[in-house]
UniProtKB/TrEMBL annotation:
GO terms for molecular function: 3'-5' exonuclease activity; ATP binding; DNA binding; DNA helicase activity; DNA-directed DNA polymerase activity; hydrolase activity, acting on acid anhydrides, in phosphorus-containing anhydrides. The keyword Nucleotide-binding applies. It comes from Paenibacillus durus ATCC 35681. The gene is dinG. Residues 760-945 form the Helicase C-terminal domain. This is 3'-5' exonuclease DinG. A motif (DEAH box) lies at residues 468-471. Its EC number is 3.1.-.-. Belongs to the helicase family. DinG subfamily. Type 2 sub-subfamily.
């Protein structure tokens, strides 16, 4: 095969753009790049400034360039008898065909392949498939991104990298891939057939350290062979004090990381954490950015666990932090700790692949959207040769990949346990076994509460607990101790059971029964036939109930924050009118569901007793799991519609654009402190809670009240510690407040406010050359600012990215922000925390309003009512502390390392005018604070940034 790798730079999209540059790299059959052809092309009109900004190609570059016809005379002969390749090839192919057409050539008839498909298949764990990122990941020279010849060469090198990978895969994997694509009439299918016939002729086949089982090549062995971390009987810490252990670890850290320096705050943290664990006390410890808090609790946790032989559980709020501990901190400590120990990461079950379901799915080609699902299956077949954990966070699944994953993820209800042919290879059981063996187990808050609800069946038992990102604990607890249900979950479960007579698990089971022809099979088929109309009744009742619940939400525009989200609270004491009708719909739903579950479970039990039904075994298990889900749904809807618990807040959420299809039901306890106290703090010997933001104006009282730690405090079983900051904030951060800035009522700014804000942001952005994050509390206001700011900065070639305006997830926006240094990112609530943008990517943080939660959010409203009933002031007891903690989180985005310098602009003058403003400013870790008139602000910022260059 001879490949021609093509890339065009154009002035715009397929319908209106013109070609301004072409690049073509030819790859010969021996996989050498024989030539790279490049040329500018003269367009008919001028090049838009945006394109010049992206590609660096100016009007003067192309003014003497050959015209399209001339360039095509050189290009067309190079396309003879080649396979055409491109990165996102449909774009370049479209331009090629219209250029061929315009210049009077025949259309290109050859094969076309896309390097994005190859990258997805060969490297399923890459975090981004963008050409620049892929090139730097592989260490390829890509000197001028967005210039056609450089892009074509980079794409050719990427293709060669993929081909190397395909030739090193085991033959079995290539056979499986070829089989996957065989059904479709595509160039990918043609490519894999060719690859397979070539690979089958090789005498020597690469196998590596892989295991071959049931026609798959796997990187994972049997988990039954996992060894404990140390031999029985020898305890390396019997004679070693914590000080001696720390000294030895520190020495080793210095030799591994020459730049390692002991930090005062971290030293204090080591001591406080080990003291809490040894003396069996609880500890609240606030550790700001740069403390090195992960090591601050991991080192004492390892010591405590190995010395006493008792597990320490570590819980984080985000999966991100969990993965960071696994990929960065644990490998480092494995080298630094002078004896073998084991730390295992254990996530919720849905993060692990179920090999039985996956095998069944690809053998049956049971696909919802064939083209995408085939590609996802191909990614996963290759991933099996690489992954040892089977954890979905390792996979980059795009588009519908998430829906695909849901159908192959492990879950309790459809697990065959020991009778599963995959049992010893099972990723979930492997993770469970590793957690059982480990000294320290790293999990997340969600799993912690799920385990508690399941009567401690999910996690290994533990007496010592470290909670990181502890300021999130209360919210997660509420979600798990209450209920939360989406319209989608119900319809998804029903569709998986039965979509129509051909699709769904029940029709699949019926098909197997038909072919077996026994008398009982006919009887069971009859039962299944009678279940169909009942399932349709349930579907209709659920859709109707959702419509009616959605209709209760008043069409108020801007609700709590994000785009188009509507929120409405329901009060048990004042049920909305027409509620009886909704309640009777719920009764219909409940009866039909009970009927289906009863008949279905009876039939499945009969099938299980009949040993011979082997081909249907896994189906019977999966259907049993879905019936169990239906039973859960029945209970949850009944609980929500009952609305009879005064200590629970009931509310509805939906998105105005998707209406009842996006409905979510919530029922959350107003106050979880007593449950946290009973379930955690009374039961565990020691719980260490840490976060960068636990105190408000140097006091921990807000957290102590909300987490149910009052009694522990009174009994002297609780310590609180605020660690000193390792950064020199007075030199590293400047906080400015424009004291004459107009104020805002509500969530929408008036014209004068928006105008001044846009002007001020634009001037500041020019001074800092972008690298600016602007945090809003209302999505409406973000929208008001987005267009005018974009316009104001267009001539400066500074891009404006808006959350929810451009589409794309939070992480995609962040990636674009980090890749393009001259940009301003506008974000709402979810950007206030957990966003890590180290170094130069972020220089300026603008806070438009203090982050008070909308007081009309049902949960905030109910908490305020509860405080009022206790004769407390909800504003000072709840709104201010919550806002201060978010404000500190927002501020924490700015300075992430000892070298960072940055500016914070607070446009909300309440911080200097109101009686509560001081709580915000005093809670910060001591930046330089100045207030001035709006027009003095930008010169002051410029001066402060230059000081840095001078010093």
């Amino acid at each position: 095969m001879k490949f021609a790798v093509l890339d065009f730079e154009t002035t715009g999209t397929q319908s209106v753009g013109e070609i301004i540059q072409v690049g073509l790299a030819i790859i010969e059959e021996d996989r050498s790049i024989s030539r790279v052809y490049g040329s500018y092309v003269k367009p008919e009109g001028p090049i838009p400034p945006f394109i010049t900004g992206l590609t660096g190609i100016t009007d003067s570059d192309v003014q003497d360039a050959p015209e399209l016809e001339e360039m095509m005379m050189e290009l067309v002969p190079l396309l003879d008898d080649v396979v055409l390749v491109g990165h996102n090839v449909a774009f370049d192919f479209h331009f090629l065909q219209s250029a061929l057409d315009r210049c009077g050539y025949l259309p290109f008839q050859g094969r076309i392949l896309d390097t994005i498909d190859f990258l997805k298949i060969c490297f399923p764990s890459l975090t981004s498939y963008q050409l620049g990122n892929v090139s730097s990941h592989f260490g390829l020279q890509h000197e001028r991104p967005h210039q056609a010849d450089s892009d074509a060469l980079a794409t050719a090198l990427v293709l060669l990298r993929c081909l190397d990978e395909l030739y090193s895969l085991p033959l079995l994997t290539v056979q499986r891939l070829t089989e996957l694509f065989a059904g479709e009439d595509s160039d990918l299918s043609w490519f894999f057939e060719g690859l397979l016939s070539e690979r089958e002729l090789e005498t020597f086949q690469p196998e590596g350290d892989l295991q071959f089982y049931r026609q798959f090549a796997l990187a994972v062995g049997d988990w039954t062979e996992l060894a404990p971390p140390r031999e029985d009987g020898d305890n390396p810490l019997e004679q070693m004090s914590f000080e001696a252990y720390l000294n030895e670890v520190t020495e080793r850290l210095r030799s591994i990381l020459p730049q390692y320096e002991s930090r005062q705050a971290q030293e204090i943290m080591f001591g406080e954490v080990i003291k809490a664990l040894e003396e069996e006390r609880h500890l609240l410890i606030e550790a700001g950015t740069g403390t090195g808090k992960s090591l601050g609790y991991l080192l004492p946790a390892i010591y405590q666990s190995v010395r006493t032989g008792q597990k320490v559980m570590v819980s984080t709020h985000t999966i991100n932090l969990q993965d960071q501990l696994r990929e960065r901190d644990i490998p480092l400590l494995t080298e630094a700790v002078p004896f073998p120990f084991k730390a295992a990461v254990f996530k919720g079950r849905g993060h692990y692949l179920c090999l039985r379901k996956f095998e069944h799915k690809i053998n049956k080609k049971d696909y919802a959207s064939p083209r995408e699902d085939t590609l996802t299956s191909a990614q996963m077949i290759v991933w099996l040769t690489q992954t040892e954990s089977g954890d979905d966070e390792e996979l980059n699944l795009s588009g519908r990949g998430g829906d695909f994953w849901e159908t192959v993820a492990s879950d309790t209800d459809s697990c065959l346990g020991r009778s599963c042919p995959w049992f010893r290879k099972c990723y979930y059981h492997r993770a469970k076994q590793e957690a059982g063996n480990a000294d320290v187990v790293i999990t997340n808050h969600s799993k912690l509460f799920a385990d508690m609800k399941a009567g401690h069946q999910l996690l290994p038992s533990y007496e010592y607990l470290v909670i990181d990102e502890a300021h999130q604990l209360e919210e997660v607890a509420g979600k798990h101790l209450g209920m939360h249900m989406k319209h989608f979950t119900v319809s998804h479960t029903l569709n998986r059971l039965y979509k129509d007579s051909r699709t769904g698990q029940l029709p699949a089971l019926r098909q197997i029964l038909q072919s077996s022809g026994s008398e009982q099979a006919a009887e069971w088929s009859g039962i299944i036939d009678r279940l169909y109309p009942d399932l349709l009744t349930v579907k209709e009742a659920w859709d109707l109930l959702s419509d009616k619940l959605y209709a209760l939400i008043p069409e108020r525009a801007d609700s709590a924050g994000e785009a188009g989200q509507l929120v409405h609270r329901l009060l048990p004491a004042k049920k909305p009118k027409g509620w009886e009708e909704l309640a009777s719909l719920e009764s219909t739903l409940n009866l039909s569901l009970s009927d289906i579950i009863r008949k279905g479970d009876k039939m499945l039990a009969e099938m299980r007793d009949q040993e011979s039904q082997s081909s249907a075994d896994s189906l019977v298990t999966d259907i049993g799991g879905l019936f169990k889900d239906l039973a859960d749904i029945r209970e949850q809807v009944r609980f929500f519609m009952g609305m009879n618990d005064e200590n629970v807040v009931y509310w509805l959420e939906a998105n105005g654009n998707y209406r009842s299809k996006s409905l979510q039901l919530y029922a959350v306890p107003v106050d979880v402190s007593s449950q946290l106290k009973e379930l955690f703090f009374d039961k565990k010997k020691s719980a260490v809670l840490t976060s960068a933001t636990l105190s408000v104006d140097k006091s921990f009282q807000y957290m102590i009240d909300n987490l149910g730690l009052n009694e522990a405090q009174e009994e002297g079983k609780l310590s609180t510690v605020q660690l000193p900051s390792p950064f020199k904030y007075r030199d590293q951060a400047l906080l400015v407040i424009p004291r004459d800035f107009p104020s805002v009522k509500g969530t929408v700014g008036d014209a004068r406010f928006v105008d001044m804000l846009v002007r001020s942001l634009a001037e500041a952005a020019v001074t800092t050359r972008g690298r600016m994050l602007v945090l809003f509390t209302s999505y409406k206001m973000l929208r008001q600012v987005y267009d005018p700011l974009k316009e104001a900065l267009a001539s400066e070639e500074i891009a404006v990215l808006g959350q929810g305006v451009e589409g794309g997830s939070r992480s995609k926006l962040l990636r674009r922000f980090q890749e393009n240094s001259a940009s301003v990112l506008l974000g709402t609530s979810s950007f206030w925390e957990g966003v890590d943008i180290p170094g130069d990517a972020l220089t300026c943080l603008a806070i438009v309003r203090l982050p008070f939660q909308p007081p009309n959010h049902p949960l905030a409203e109910a908490k305020a009512e509860l405080l009022q009933a206790q004769k407390k002031n909800p504003f000072m007891k709840l709104s201010v502390p919550q806002a201060v903690i978010r404000f500190k989180q927002g501020f924490g985005r700015l300075v992430r390392t000892a070298q960072d310098r940055g500016i914070v602009i607070v446009y909300d003058t309440r911080v200097i005018e109101s009686y509560y403003g001081k709580y915000f400013l005093y809670s910060l870790p001591g930046p330089k604070m100045e207030h001035m008139s709006t027009e003095q602000m930008v010169p002051r910022i410029a001066e402060w940034l230059q000081q840095d260059g001078a010093s």
